[in-house]
Amino acid sequence: MDYFTRALIEAVLAGGLAGLVGVIVVVRDRAFFTMSLTHATFPGAVAAVLLGIPPVLGAAAASLGLVGIASGIGRMRAQGASVASGIMLTTGFALGMLLQSVSTTSVNVESFLTGSILATSNGQLVLTATVLAASALALLLFGRRVVFESFDAAGYRAAGQKPIVIEMVVLLMISSTVVTLMPVVGSILAVALIVAPAAAAKQLTRSTTGMFFVAPIIGIAAGVIGLLASRALEVSAGGAITLTAALIYLLALLPWRRFRSMVKTS
Amino acid sequence: MTGVTFEVQAGEAVALIGPNGAGKSTLLQALLGQLKHTAKRFEVPTGAGQIGLLPQRQSVTEDFPVTLQQVVTMGRIPHRGILWPSRDDRSGVQRALEEVGLWNLRKRRFGELSGGQRQRGLLARALASDPKLMLLDEPFNGLDAPSREQLIAIVRRLKARGVGFLITTHDIDLARQVTERTLLLNQKQIDFDETECALTLEQVQRVFDHHAVEIDGHTLATAEHHNEMHHGDVHGRPEDPEAP
Hints:
heterodimer, A: mainly alpha, B: alpha/beta, Rossmann fold, 6-stranded mixed beta sheet, 9 helices, globular, ABC_BtuC-like (chain A), transmembrane (chain A)
């Protein structure tokens, strides 16, 4: 398998994963949290390189730690989740830069920030496929509950269910996705690939059921089109993929609303 | 909150009336088993889904990508039907939707329904688990007159089939229209009696404290007056005593 075939397969897997988990991020309004999480993985990856272990492991450790901190701060009512996310975002980023500046080993910071899909390894392919399969399974088992709890948390509790279970499943799914996507599109760009396809799907479909099918398709399209465009135009792959995702979102947004209002007036 | 003694019989509706902070929500939570309590006697239906809740309107995210049918299917969660809806679950959902007259709109996005339809949709969600007792939390808030009439008609139909209701409300007229008995609450129990006997001017004044006396007194006085003048066609509504 040559490097570009691996990159293409990774674009399909990562796009599907981002789209699928993105639905959860969008319906639970966790876009900002996801953004801060993507940035929080950055120092973990830098530290891992300094320690000589795979960056993904460092990113995973950092994101797990930060999920713990975030849920702790988020529980303090006076602070709130977005304050916690904002602090996490900048702290994580600053920590990564600091680590990189004091290190004697050279760290390719750019690859962590905007990804390096063309350098996709077989291990990365396996990781992405595994996280994708696990997320799909988790959604088959818990998807309807996650939707219920996101729609009406009080009603979910009143039905005798435990919201904490849902929150844990969701956090685990988002953080493993963020960690998996970091090598593909990087800390900074990952959030767009996660949020944009799901947000576009929300415009195009009537319900979450539809979103769960449409968002991965859009994610895959963004990944593949972006990758091909980056080769044709000789530009950054991570940037091209992210911009494609954003473009699809805009396309989904504009004509659809006009179409709907046309239907209403006719 | 202490000293609260009341019951809801099958096919009966009980109004739960009191100002904000009176303990209405606390009482509902306790009935749902979400709070610890030290009641000497406490009997509620304990079977799966036997208590249905219609939450206050602001509790749900209205611009959420779910269809009406999805929302009503959520009501089957006590029967585990939310995982893989079975034939039972689907027929329960259909029955509930037909009950509230929304079967034809089941594919609509929930947020695109009118306020009254959304409220009936949430009522259908509560009905989908075949409850014996329904808890309605401020069900008439923000509804226009036709929607209120429809909701009242549904409640009456369900009562006739033996479902018991506990309805929190600020609306004394509505309490009179749909409930047999009333529990007046303000931290403690003020009264539990037949609605007509419980909702006397003095009692309502006691419950709503001083600043609302005038408003409720006015409504109560005119309600009697209107009853005589317009053959029970009463539209006078007490203003929300908590309104700023």
